Every structure is written in C-alpha cells, then in structure tokens.
C-alpha cells in the first residue's frame, strides 16, 4: 500500500542533464519541484584523488545495477531476447547527475539537415532515396527554432570550441576557446588539410579555461588528467549537472530533491497523469507523489519502459507502424575506422580528456553528394585522445596472441605508438528496430524489463564501406608503419559494441499519429506529461546527443512554465 504524499506543482523523474536543467529553470521561475532520483547523491568530493580505473571503469560504480534492472536484447523479432548481464555497449548512469556525471563531454549541435531530414532528402534526391522500411521523419521543428536553446545550454555549460562553416548558423561563438592541440591531433590536422579538408577541434564540455556562467557558477579549467569517461570530475572542469544546474535549483529553495527514489509507475487515467509511484530503495517503502505536472527525464530506456509499464501513450507496433512509444530506436555507427601503428614514433597517450580531439565536417549529414550512394546522412571522422588506461587499453596488431609473451611484447611496443582515425556515423530508424516490454524477464520489483530489438541495417553497412575508404586515405597520408581498417559492419552485439549513444522511443514530431511528444516534449496523449531526453530524437545524428538533449530540455522547461500558467496543448 502506497503512502500518499501532499500534492506538488511538478515532479521530475531523473536528475541528470534533462531533469537538472528543467528543475533549474522551473525553480528559478518560482515553481515548487520535487526531483526523484533512484541513485544516491554525489559531489566532486566523491571523486577527489579517485583516479581508480578498476573501481569506476571496470566495476562501473556510477552505473545502474544490472543485477536489479537491465534490458533484454535481440537482433530481430524471430529470436528470444536475453538480459544484458554486464556493461559493454551501454553505460546507464545512476545517482544525481546520471550519465551527465560520467560522460566524456563532447558537445555538438545537430545539423539543420537533421531536423528536416525527410523533407530535405526528398527535395534533393527524390522520394525514392529513403528506402522502404526506414521510418525517417522530420522533427516538427527547425534548427533555427532550436538555436537559441543551444546557445543557452552552451553558455550554462561553458562549452569550449570553434565555429565550423559547414554547420548551422550560430547567434554567438562558443563561450570558451578550443582545447589544446596534441601531437596526434597535429598529425591528423596536417594529413586532412593536405587532402583539402578543414579540421576543427571538437566542441568540449571539458573547460579549456576558467569560466563563470550566466547563473554565477564558476568552474576551473580542465587538467587533462584523462579520467572523464565513466568517471566523475574531481575538479568540476567537466560540465556536469551536479556542478552547474542542480546547485542553482537548490539555491532557490524550491527544489525538494529525493535520492534513493525509484519511480515504478506514472499514475494516470489515460488522458492525464495525477502523479507517480516510487519506492525508497533503502527501506522498500512505497509512496505516491501527486503532482499537477509529471516530467519524465530519465535515460532513454527508462523513459520508454516507464511509459509502457504505466500504460501511457500508444505502444509501437512494428507490423502495422501504429503507435509511437518504442518507435524509432536508434544507435550509432562506429565501424569503418582505421588504427595506426608506429614502429619508431611515440606519443603521450596516457594524458588527455574526454572531449579532446579533432574532426572533419565534410562527411557529416548531407555535406557531400549522396546521389550515387546507397545511404543517406554521414559521419564525423576524427581522432581523439581520451587518455589510455593500463587495464583497458592494450592495442596490438591483428593476429597477435591475446595472452602470453608475444602479447606482452607487442603491448609494450605499441603502448604509446598507436592512435585511431575513426568514424561516428548517423543511425537512421527502421521499422524493425524498436523497444517494447519483455514478456519473460522482470526487475527486482516485479516490473517487466525493456526489450530492445535492434540490428544494423543495409544503410549502416553501406555507410561503413564508404567511410572506411575515407579513414584509410587519411591514415595513409599520416604515414604510419601499419594500418588496420575495419571495412565491414558486423551484426550488433550488446556486450561488445562500443558506442554509448541511444536515442528514440518517445519521439517528437508535428503529427500525433507518428510521434509521441510535440516540440516542447509534451505528450500528445497526456498534456500534463513531458518526456525529456534523447528518447525524443526521431533519429540519431553523427554527433554526440548531449548538446541537443540540453537544448530541448531548455525548450521543454519553457513549455512547462507556459503550461502551468495557461494549460492545454502548447502547439
């Protein structure tokens, strides 16, 4: 039996980037907000002198406990899905800050092309360019409409970067300059310029200089210690909800932040929500928190699962195409890169930062002609220097034994003498890639797990073949002693694939028949429910999703404030 609590204006489920931004904006506007986070509280003090690879990277201390809740995965609907038992592909954050605490910090904007991808593709190449089965659709808004919110997010987070000609127009430059250029980045820069490309330093949530944002939050510059991905930043140099938006919300006195609070259900009548049910994970007590507005701002998988377990919104049916909750799950493409080995040249590869790198824009989006290609969209081609680690990184040439004296010899030889020219490609939705509830497996509370049905498509495979030639050409112009290029896309493997960017499942759009939320992330089927996060993306671009997630969260906050005043649909 749930203990019913007093009603509040707004309850937010999940206190990562999306929840933190929305909490900050609502509380600054004077609204009382309850923030529910199933994990524990964290601060920079928790990471002080905590450069512990075993603890954070391999034992995944900042991640969701897979023994209590996970996802099930299968490559197609004809096979049985099995639970993901250890972290390989996905690293789902847990605790205040969520994935915003353990992310690397790469902070791109999506392209103008992304937001009108169906319209612009058909205009340039004709209606047959998008093949049958690909559920590609426009987002229900344009880049120009979202640009002011991108600007707000970048100023709040102190994003470091430089303007790129081939991307959308900016109202302002990045608030801080680009990060330092290392020797491997210089090698990439020299080779790509020789080929006629225009390389640029990656936009970074790792501060290139000391910075004070518009909310008065001051943070120090990055130390290039290399402990970003899977780690929290002890300096606060990496943009993180814990050191940016959440302190602002707390300072207003309008945020009631409750940790160890796992939301299991949205209470609703099918048209409106009245609140949420959550369990105190320490005591097992169950509570009902009534609210005028419910904001779902958890990880992609958790957003979809919570809606499906609450019977809120229409579940997607891959056979008919009807329904939108679970539709257009997308990943990203990372095969097609080249690895460079040097016999007589060394670099300092154990220093770095999560967003330290250099990229070319010429193969992103529709920046190149796809007329004769069997795919659309594209990939960022880059080299990065996150900082290697002794346990995780042992790059050796193909054919080397995986253990023994030869493995040790080659590991030592190439410890500082290899780096990648890699791709990050867009992932377009397909009618057979989707999310639903697993009919067999349940979590620790008896709720069905989320089931992911996903595999790479022909579009993905064609992109990999194309981009592998580009990375090989760049690698050859750098001039290493050995090059290994990944030319084929293998089937998706949830335990081995390395990209961590998941999108879709509660997608936005202009049509309630083909989308779950509008451009303010307000549900079509329940006007007082807002679903924030990368679950709103109708497809995944070739860029990291956080910048777009942040921009949409600021827009959602604006919409919630309007809704609290006037009610009704916002579009």
From TrEMBL:
<comment type="similarity">
    <text>Belongs to the GMC oxidoreductase family.</text>
</comment>
<keyword id="KW-0285">Flavoprotein</keyword>
<protein>
    <submittedName>
        <fullName>Gluconate 2-dehydrogenase alpha chain</fullName>
        <ecNumber>1.1.99.3</ecNumber>
    </submittedName>
</protein>
<keyword id="KW-0274">FAD</keyword>
<feature type="domain" description="Glucose-methanol-choline oxidoreductase N-terminal">
    <location>
        <begin position="220"/>
        <end position="329"/>
    </location>
</feature>
<feature type="domain" description="Glucose-methanol-choline oxidoreductase C-terminal">
    <location>
        <begin position="429"/>
        <end position="552"/>
    </location>
</feature>
<dbReference type="Pfam" id="PF00732">
    <property type="entry name" value="GMC_oxred_N"/>
</dbReference>
<dbReference type="GO" id="GO:0033717">
    <property type="term" value="F:gluconate 2-dehydrogenase (acceptor) activity"/>
</dbReference>
<dbReference type="InterPro" id="IPR007867">
    <property type="entry name" value="GMC_OxRtase_C"/>
</dbReference>
<keyword id="KW-0560">Oxidoreductase</keyword>
<dbReference type="Pfam" id="PF05199">
    <property type="entry name" value="GMC_oxred_C"/>
</dbReference>
<dbReference type="InterPro" id="IPR000172">
    <property type="entry name" value="GMC_OxRdtase_N"/>
</dbReference>
<dbReference type="InterPro" id="IPR036188">
    <property type="entry name" value="FAD/NAD-bd_sf"/>
</dbReference>
């Amino acid at each position: 039996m749930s203990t019913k609590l007093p009603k509040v204006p707004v309850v937010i489920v999940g206190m990562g980037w999306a929840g933190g931004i929305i909490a900050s904006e609502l509380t600054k506007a004077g609204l009382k907000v309850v923030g529910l986070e199933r994990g524990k509280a964290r601060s920079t003090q928790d990471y002080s002198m905590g450069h512990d690879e075993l603890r954070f990277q391999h034992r995944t201390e900042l991640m969701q406990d897979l023994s209590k809740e996970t996802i099930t995965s299968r490559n197609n609907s004809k096979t049985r899905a099995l639970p993901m038992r250890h972290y390989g592909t996905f690293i789902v954050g847990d605790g205040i800050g969520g994935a915003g605490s353990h992310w690397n910090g790469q902070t791109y904007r999506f392209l103008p092309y992304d937001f009108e991808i169906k319209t612009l593709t058909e205009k340039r190449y004709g209606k047959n360019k998008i093949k049958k089965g690909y559920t590609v659709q426009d987002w229900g808004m344009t880049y120009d409409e979202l640009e002011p919110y991108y600007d707000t997010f970048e100023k709040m987070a102190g994003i470091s970067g430089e303007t790129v000609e081939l991307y959308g127009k900016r109202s302002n430059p990045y608030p801080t300059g680009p990060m330092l250029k290392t020797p491997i980045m210089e090698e990439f820069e020299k080779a790509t310029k020789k080929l006629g490309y225009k390389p640029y330093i990656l936009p970074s949530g790792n501060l290139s200089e000391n910075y004070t944002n518009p909310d008065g939050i001051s943070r120090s510059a990055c130390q290039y210690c290399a402990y970003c991905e899977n780690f929290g930043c002890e300096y606060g140099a990496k943009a993180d909800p814990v050191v940016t938006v959440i302190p602002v919300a707390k300072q207003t006195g309008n945020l009631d932040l409750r940790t160890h609070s796992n939301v299991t259900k949205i209470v609703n009548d099918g048209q409106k929500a009245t609140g949420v049910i959550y369990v105190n994970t320490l005591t097992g007590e169950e509570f009902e928190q009534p609210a005028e507005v419910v904001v779902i701002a958890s990880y992609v998988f958790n957003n979809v699962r919570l809606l499906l377990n609450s019977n809120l919104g229409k579940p997607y049916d891959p056979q008919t195409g009807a329904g939108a909750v679970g539709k257009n799950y997308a990943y990203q493409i990372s095969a097609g890169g080249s690895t460079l080995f040097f016999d007589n040249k060394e670099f300092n590869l154990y220093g770095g930062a999560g967003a330290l790198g250099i990229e070319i824009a010429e193969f992103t989006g529709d920046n190149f002609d796809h007329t004769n290609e069997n795919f659309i969209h594209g990939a960022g081609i880059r080299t990065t220097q996150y900082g290697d680690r002794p346990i995780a990184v042992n790059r050796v040439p193909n054919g080397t034994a995986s253990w023994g004296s030869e493995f040790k010899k080659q590991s030592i030889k190439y410890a500082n003498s290899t780096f990648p020219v890699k791709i990050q490609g867009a992932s377009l939705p397909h009618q057979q890639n989707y999310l639903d509830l697993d009919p067999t497996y349940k979590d620790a509370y008896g709720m069905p797990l989320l089931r992911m049905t996903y595999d790479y498509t022909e579009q993905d495979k064609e992109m990999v073949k194309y981009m592998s030639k580009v990375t090989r050409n760049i690698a050859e112009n750098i001039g290493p002693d050995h090059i290994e290029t990944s030319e084929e896309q293998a089937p998706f493997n949830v335990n081995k694939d390395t990209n961590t960017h998941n999108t879709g499942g509660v997608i936005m759009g202009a049509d309630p028949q083909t989308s779950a939320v509008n451009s303010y992330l307000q549900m079509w089927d329940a006007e007082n429910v807002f679903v924030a996060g990368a679950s709103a993306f109708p497809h995944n671009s070739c860029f990291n999703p956080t910048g777009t997630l942040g921009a949409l969260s600021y827009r959602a906050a604006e919409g919630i404030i309007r809704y609290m005043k006037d009610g009704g649909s916002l579009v």
